[in-house]
Amino acid sequence: MTIKRIVIIILALIIAGIVFFLAGKKATHAPASPGTIQNPATPTATINGQTFLLEIAKDAKTRERGLSYRESLDQDNGLLFLFDRADRYSFWMKDMHFSIDIIYINNDTVVHVFENVPPPTSTTQTLPTYTPDSAADKVLEINAGLSEKYGIKKGDKVEFKGTTSITGTTGF
What we know:
The protein is an alpha+beta fold. The protein contains three helices and seven strands. Strand 2 (50-57), helix 2 (60-65) and strand 3 form a beta-alpha-beta unit.
């Protein structure tokens, strides 16, 4: 074999290696399709066969902020508020920019649903509060209309998954 052929073979192997490397990177980092869980450790809640990807509000600071100041929430995502004990927690829509459904949960069972809760129409508006009929140890906020779309109602069971069991304590 001549040196020219050896150089050509080596270059071809290097180029092939680069192509396979880049193809693998692209497949690994391709965005997930809507509704696909990108990380199996991401906490989820499933109600009536519909799974929501969760952010967790487990301390006073994240519970106070909630979804305030955001312009939207990804479809089929939710913010789960965890409390140390069951109580009739009141929520309001301070600094909200979009409507939501508020689902109160106790012992992994839906105990109350407020549907299509609107954001305030002005900064001077007196804000209504939303308080359930019975105590809850978790509250799930999702996009408005999804409770109706998925038939979520009082008495429905909620299955939580993630790397750690969601127990209703701030130690999630």
